[in-house]
Structures are given as C-alpha cells and as structure tokens.
C-alpha cells in the first residue's frame, strides 16, 4: 500500500512522498482568537488531527504547526467592545480554544506559534520582499505586487484579471493594482502596534503564516492544510509571497476540508446559525462530535442536524459497547502466551488481517475515514460474535482488542478511562450494591443505583457478572 492524497493545487490524487524520508512537515492555519471556536472551526481541527495521527501510525515523525492569529482587526474591535486589550482578549480565547480541542480529543500541535511572538521574523520577511521589488510601501502600509508574481491564482485556478476578492481583501486607492494585498498595516490612533522600517503598525493577515511556516518548518512544506474557505485569498496570497521570497515551492501538497451546513443552510453570522464547540460539548460526548466529522470524507460538505448527530451517538455507542465488553471479558480470562491466534482460530485471524487491510487501504486513499470506520464496524461484528461464545479464549479477544486499539489511535472514537480513583469508587459502590441485594437491603441497592445513574454510569448483567460503563 502507498498513501495517496488529493492535492488541491493539481486537483488530483497524488502519491505522497515527503521531502525527507520518515519525516513530514505539516502546517495548518489556526484560528483568529477573538471568539469561541464554532463547529466550522472544529472540522479542520479534527480532520488534521486524524491526518497527523495516521501519518504517525504508519511510521512518520510529524512536525505539525498550527498558528494563533492573536492580533487582527477583529481582535481590536473585540477588545474595544469588552473594554479590554488585544493581548487579554487573545489569551482568553486561546485558553478557550485549548480547552475545546482537549475536549474534542485533539492532540496539541507540535508548535502553536502566535503572531505577536514572531513580529521580527514577519518584518524581516516583508523587508526581503521590498528589497526584491515584490512589495512597496505607501503611507505607512506595505503591499504585495501581485502582477509581478506570474503564478498568482494557481491554487484557486482563477485568472488574476477575473479574481473574485474575498474577506480581508481591501479596495484601496493607494494600491498600484486592485489585486495587491497588504503585508503591513500602519497603526491607527489608539491601536496596538510594533515599530517597523515603514512606521508603527502590525502585520497583515496573510504574511503571518508565510513567516511562521518558514521559521518552524523551512522554505517548503510537505503538507499545507485548512478549510476550503481559505483557498482564496489566504492560501493564494501565502503562495505568492512565500515563493516570491524564496524562489521555491511553498508546499508540495495542499489539503482543504469541506464546509459544514446547519440544517441544510450555510453557516453564517447573518443567519445567526453558528454553533460553538463549548455549546456542543455540553450536549454531546466528544467522541460523538469526532464521529460526526469523520463519518464523511473530509473534502465533502457536512450537514449538521439533530437526526444525523443522533445517528452518530448510536454508532459511537455501538463501538464503545463492543470495546468495553471485550475488555471486561478479557479481565476474566487468563493470558496464554503459548498459543497464537492462527493456532486457536485461523478463520478469525484471516478476517482480522482482511479488516486491517481494509482500514489501511481506505485511510491511504486520501484519508477516507468514512470507509475506514466501516472496517471498524466489521471488527465490532466479529467481537460481538465472539462474545456470544462461552468458550472464547484470551488469544481471540486480545486480537480483537488490539485491532480496536490500533483503529482508535487513529480515529479517537473511544475515550479510555484514566481516572483510577473514580473507577475504584464505582467498583466499590457496585460491590456494595451486590451485597445489599444479596442481603435484601433493597433501599440501599436502589440508592446506589440512583447515585450511579446520576453519574451517568450504566450497570449491565453479563455472564461474568455485573459490569459498568459510562453513558
């Protein structure tokens, strides 16, 4: 098998070959931290978490960089509204973002650089473009000459003379051409600023990612990712300024995830239909939200509805239950190192090989998580069949558990409990309840049942005795 991914630049699937054997450099555009993360922001966060996990699972060392835009017009306006400062606003929402990604089971990037920690690098990058004739200063601002960069528009496949300008592209009479974009913004009275050769000001939006990607990953990235909405103008501008500055390809592979709709309508501020991750985490388990994001191919649009999220809840419960039942049954069996799965159950061994191959085949076909999940459900079916047998062996169940663990390392759809103290307390309550029932102390048994229910603990009778799981 060989990993292929869809390269937005060429609009085709390509064999993935990193620049350095065994290592991958990946940059994913992070949030502008002026508000809480919404469901649309969560999709690339989860998608590229899985991309990173899978690359690591197949042996790559991944240097994953995702930035924080912590100075921007939106942060300045937010600070004014809150009667605060830009750094205070940024710190508040960076902390909220970190709590959200942890709540979604997302691993932190290798580096989460902030714009404000990279101002000297950004200024030096801009000065290099000015020296090369790709940028010009005008009344304290600095602009990039798009006409001088002949490939401008190659990612979004637009003709430079017919470009449809998007968010943060400003019409300004001081520009030599309407398509030119700002690299440095002169500070208005009362705004946060840094000193530069062109006067006091702050970076434009696009330049920050080029400068930070270069600082932390070098001139050329293996993978650059982000939401579909970033193709133009943000990524287009990144390419222009980076390749103009270095004369090298900025990224070898471009990946973009699709949009999320809410009840079949595009999510937008004008419709007021955005949903924050903080709200979602109160209503749903993080694994349900991950499942919702991964049950469709990352390039396809997603539609968030109560019905679809309900289906995700049911699917996650099916995986969790099988996972928990296998682990519970394993605890009642004695390990037998002398036997192999092939010697105990050759048919199951062959099926698990087939299931693993299907999982990896789908993941290596442009990270097709939707079909990879289908492979996991095949493993669930095998597990459920095994669990019906009274004579099931440790070797058989351990083989299934290993498949579950490997798939979970990539997709993160099951949370394995790590709070041993809490687990011990629950086990003690269950033991007390069993004793209360044996002594016909029904009142105490009911009290314990109600207490566990309040803690979202579900009790289940199994052939091996009472077991519990979290709802």
Automatic annotation (TrEMBL):
Cofactor notes: Binds 1 zinc ion per subunit.
Location of the motif 'HIGH' region: 31-41
Location, primary (coarse class): cytoplasm
Motif ('KMSKS' region): 266-270
Subcellular location: Cytoplasm
GO process annotations (BP): cysteinyl-tRNA aminoacylation
Required cofactor names: Zn(2+)
Keyword set includes GTP-binding: no
Keywords for this protein: Aminoacyl-tRNA synthetase, ATP-binding, Cytoplasm, Ligase, Metal-binding, Nucleotide-binding, Protein biosynthesis, Zinc
Binding site for ATP: 269
Binding site for Zn(2+): 29, 209, 234, 238
A GO CC term attached to the entry: cytosol
GO molecular function list: ATP binding; cysteine-tRNA ligase activity; zinc ion binding
The EC number(s) this enzyme carries: 6.1.1.16
Keyword Membrane part of the UniProt annotation: no
Cysteinyl-tRNA synthetase class Ia DALR domain ranges (all copies): 358-422
Sequence similarity: Belongs to the class-I aminoacyl-tRNA synthetase family.
Subunit structure: Monomer.
Protein name per UniProt: Cysteine--tRNA ligase
Organism of origin: Paenibacillus selenitireducens
């Amino acid at each position: 098998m060989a990993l292929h991914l869809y390269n937005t630049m060429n609009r085709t699937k390509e064999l993935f070959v990193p620049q350095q054997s065994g290592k991958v450099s990946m940059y994913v555009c992070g949030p502008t931290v002026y508000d809480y993360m919404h469901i649309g922001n969560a999709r690339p966060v989860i998608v590229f978490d899985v991309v990173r996990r899978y690359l690591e699972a197949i042996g790559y060392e991944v240097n994953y960089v995702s930035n924080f835009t912590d100075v921007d017009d939106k942060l300045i306006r937010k600070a004014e509204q809150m009667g605060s400062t830009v750094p205070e606003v940024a710190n508040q929402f960076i902390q909220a973002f970190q709590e959200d990604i942890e709540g979604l089971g997302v691993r932190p990037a290798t580096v989460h650089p902030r714009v404000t920690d990279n101002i000297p690098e950004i200024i030096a990058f801009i000065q290099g473009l000015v020296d090369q004739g790709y940028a010009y200063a005008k009344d304290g601002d600095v602009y990039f000459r798009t006409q001088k960069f002949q490939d401008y528009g190659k990612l979004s496949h637009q003709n430079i003379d017919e470009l449809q300008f998007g968010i943060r592209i400003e019409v300004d009479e001081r520009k030599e051409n309407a398509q030119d974009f700002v690299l440095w913004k002169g500070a208005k009275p009362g705004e946060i600023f840094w000193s530069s050769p062109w006067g006091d000001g702050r970076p434009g939006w696009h330049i920050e990612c080029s400068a930070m990607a270069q600082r932390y990953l070098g001139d050329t990235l293996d993978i650059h990712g982000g939401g579909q909405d970033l193709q133009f103008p943000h990524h287009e501008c990144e390419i222009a300024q980076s390749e103009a500055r270095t004369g090298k390809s900025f990224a070898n592979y471009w990946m973009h995830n699709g949009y999320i709709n809410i009840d079949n309508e595009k999510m937008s501020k004008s419709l007021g239909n955005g949903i924050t991750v903080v709200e979602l985490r109160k209503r749903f388990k993080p694994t349900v939200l991950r499942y919702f994001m991964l049950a469709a191919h990352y390039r396809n649009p997603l539609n968030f509805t109560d019905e679809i999220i309900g289906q995700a809840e049911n699917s996650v419960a099916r995986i969790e239950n099988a996972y928990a039942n296998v682990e519970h049954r394993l605890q009642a069996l004695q390990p037998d190192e002398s036997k192999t799965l092939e010697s105990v159950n050759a048919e199951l061994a062959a099926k698990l090989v087939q299931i693993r191959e299907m999982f990896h085949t789908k993941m290596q076909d442009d990270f097709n998580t939707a079909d990879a999940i289908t492979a996991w459900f095949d493993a669930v079916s095998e597990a459920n069949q095994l669990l019906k047998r009274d004579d099931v062996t440790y070797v058989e169940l351990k083989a299934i558990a290993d498949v579950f663990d490997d798939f979970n390392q990539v997709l993160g759809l099951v949370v394995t409990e790590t709070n041993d103290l809490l687990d011990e307390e629950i086990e003690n309550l269950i033991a007390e309840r069993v004793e209360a029932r044996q002594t016909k102390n029904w009142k105490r048994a009911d009290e314990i049942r109600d207490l566990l229910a309040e803690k979202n603990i579900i009790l289940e009778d199994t052939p091996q005795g009472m077991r519990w799981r979290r709802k």
